[in-house]
Amino acid sequence: MSNEQSLATVRAVYDAFNIGDMPTLLGLVAEDFELVDVALGMTWRGPQGWGEWVQNWATSMPDARIRLDSIIAEGDIVVTEHTGGGTHTGPLGTPAGVIPPTGKTLELKFAEFFELRDGKIKTLRAYWDTGTLMRQLGLM
For position 1, what pLDDT does the model report? Predict the structure, then answer.
């Protein structure tokens, strides 16, 4: 893929999330997609796993929005930094259990590393800080 095609595919992730377009989000990943959330120490697979990961954030913060701060592509590799935020009004699933709604406003920085194949996202590794999340929720 060209850099422009790779950039457009990854930008579509953030655009679709911001308007709640789950069908588009699911269509952007390969059948053998793998998502590694480094902060949570968890892995999701396939479009269904991708949908579960995205839906957890969308459910916990129905007003969540993403601002893409930087994006760099080199062929099939795309790296982004973005700021995600919203109001924690729904349950947030974690490896330690569900965090009930706190009503707190969150703003988290993410770095994400995408690997694409044949126009689809094959792998995503998401890096973010759980300490910032817990502090903003008033849990530490």
Answer: 76
